[in-house]
Amino acid sequence: MILNGKRILVTGVVTRESIGYAVAEQAQLAGAEIILTSFGRPMRLTERSAKGLPQTPDILELDVNEPSHFEKLTADLEERWGGIDGALHAIAFAPEDALGGKFLTTPAESAAIAFQTSAFSMKSLATALLPLFGGEGSIVGLDFDASVAWPVYDWMGVAKAALEATSRYLARDLGPRGVRVNLVSAGPLGTLAARGIPGFGDLATAWKSQAPLGWDTDDPGPVAGAIVFLLSDLARAVTGEILHVDGGFHAMGTALAPVAEEAVA
Q1: Structural domain total, the chain
Q2: CB atoms within 10 A of CB 176
Q3: pLDDT digits (tens, 9 = 90+) for 57-93
């Protein structure tokens, strides 16, 4: 019960395959009280998914590209809980013309949308929640390793690089106020959003073959477990960190092709 008594806000829950759903489930089982966010058309899917959790949580409206929603979020959480202990930022989006090998032709407007929704929104969420933390707390964001260029990921990869930088600056500025900020860099998981990325299947296949621990794209449990740890007091001295939960893939070099192996021999 490492989150016993904690009040945790979880974004990004759409279906039961969402990483946010696994986090909400594990957090509740670890003793936390949960509130979800959603907006627009996905709200009905979020409501349906929420009913499958151990306790059905409330859902607040939050479109991260609407500044007024953050003001209302702060007020709603203050009224319901009087404070907060942690939050999961699991929000990312890039327009279709910013993905799938269109890096060189992506218009500036689409790149800006990817940045604002996927990276700047973490700053917006942090500042909205800051008055509620009461001197300590934890914010965790979902990342996908931005230290390299991935096939087809394009401007979402750039947005994730911005997210990584944003988390470090937030760790710097919120640390003196007792709030920790970390990211979990997850391996590819078969969420609704991921399946919409062209070439996701090829990426997932490569992961399964090269991750030394193996990798199950249908199991968000290990990623959720790491997030729960970072939300807990067990991680009270951890901030500005990127924790890789990817079966060890990030630590391996690219597999050599058979011809290259023969040449080395």
Answers
A1: 1
A2: 7
A3: 999 999 999 999 999 999 999 999 999 999 999 999 9
